[in-house]
Design brief:
The protein is an alpha+beta fold. The protein has one domain (about 1-79). Helices cover about 55% and strands about 15% of the residues. It has three helices and four strands. A two-stranded antiparallel sheet has the order 1-2. A two-stranded antiparallel sheet has the order 3-4. The longest helix has 25 residues, at about 1-25.
Length: about 80
């Protein structure tokens, strides 16, 4: 059972590493955000550069965006 759990965990880590590698090679940094060709929603600069998490930004209006992960972290730390 332990080997099965370890195998599942390793597969998950490998998938994330492959996704991050693809993102690193395809993403373009512009206007303080990362963009992928064909995707109309940008990705968070901080999440990618600090944590290597690929997080879409949320529209805040008038061509501005917010990071939902940052809002979530603020909410957790206030408690």
């Amino acid at each position: 059972m332990d080997l099965l759990d370890e195998n599942t965990q390793l597969r998950s880590e490998l998938e994330k590493a492959q996704l991050n590698s693809d993102f690193a090679h395809k993403a373009v940094f512009k206007d303080g955000m990362y963009w992928l060709k064909g995707d109309s929603t940008p990705f968070c600069q901080r999440c990618w550069e600090i944590d290597h998490n690929i997080v879409h930004l949320g529209p805040a209006g008038y061509g501005t965006y917010y990071c939902p992960e940052e809002l979530y972290q603020r909410k957790i730390h206030r408690k």
